[in-house]
Predict the 3D structure of the following.
Amino acid sequence: MIVRHAPIELQRDCEATMIPSGEKITLSRGDEVRITQALGGSYTVTTSSGYLVRIGSTDADALGLEPAQAIDLVAASGVFSLDQVIDQLKAVFDPEIPVNVVDLGLIYSCEAHPLPSGGHRVEIEMSMTAPGCGMGDVLRMDAITNVQTIPGVSEVAVEIVWEPPWDPSRMSEAAKLQLGML
C-alpha cells in the first residue's frame, strides 16, 4: 500500500529524473523521499532537498514497493485495435499533473499501419503542456514502452510536436473536472 507524503528511506541507489528539467540524477540508498503521485507505474517524489523527481517502475523496489503490473490488454479475440493503443496511452501520466496524456489532450494523432511482415506500426504525435518541458523524452518513452506491450504491435514511433501549441481547451471534461477547472 502506498502512503502519500509519508517519509520513505530508499533501500538502494536508483536513477531518477528531475521535474521539470528532465535531468537524470542518482538518488542514494538511505535518502529520504516522499511520494506525491503514483500513477501509470511511475512515482513522483520529493527529496529531502526539496527536489521533485520521477522514479520509474523498474526502481519501485528502491521505494520498498512491488513494480506495477502492466495493463493487460489482451482482448478475448486477440485482435489488434487502436482502442488498445489509447488504453495504454491512458496509463502514461504527466509526473506533475495527476492526469494521463490522453485526457490532458497531449495526443494529437494516433494511427496504425499494417506491416507487410505482419503486425502493425503505430505512429503517435504528442505534445507537452509547455515547450520548455524537459519531461518530453520521458513521456515519449513511457508511451513507446506501453504501446509495445499490445499484441500485434511490431513498431512504435512517437514524435513530439509543437504545432498547434497545446492549451487547456484540449483537455477532456474529466481532466478539467479532476483539476478543478469546471
